[in-house]
Amino acid sequence: MAKRKKSDLRDRILELLKNTEVHPTAAWVFDRLRTEFPRVAVGTVYRNLNILVSEGLIKNISFNEPIERYDGNLSEHYHFICEECGSIRDINVPPLKTLENRIEKLLDADVTHHRIDFYGVCPTCKKKRKQS
Ligand SMILES: [Zn+2]
Ligand SMILES: [Zn+2]
């Protein structure tokens, strides 16, 4: 087998991020690339994730948590975070542009984007609650 270049690893990380909706951590990505890149350390994965963030190819979406989460979906969207299992899912409603306009007027500033995070209990955890 030919020796894999560093850029191969980054390409695979990007591909993984583009094909998942779990908003993974570096550890999740590391786990999935372990067999393919047996000599790669979790720190390397983390570094490559942050390079992809700085290149604007993925987003870092941290929710006041010590562990960083990443998103391959670059479209403007909101998130729902389950406070019990920590899962993050996309909410596909149109972005509130009228709110942005109001804030622009209120502050006399240029608003480039905004984010709204919703917190609560996801359907899976709700079911578990009922069972116990
Ligand atoms: Zn949950
Ligand atoms: Zn997302």
Protein described:
This protein has 132 residues and is of the alpha+beta class. It has a single domain, classed as Dna Ligase, domain 1 (2-Layer Sandwich). Helices cover 41% and strands 13% of the residues. It contains five helices and five strands. The strands form two sheets. It has a three-stranded mixed sheet, with no helix packed on it. Strands 1-2 form a two-stranded antiparallel ribbon. Strand 3 (78-82) and strand 4 (88-91) form a beta hairpin. Helix 1 packs across helix 3 and helix 2 (26-33) packs across helix 3. The chain is flat and about 55 Å long. The protein starts with 5 loop residues before the first helix and ends with a helix. The model has no long low-confidence stretch (mean pLDDT 91). The site of one zinc ion has 6 residues, from loops.
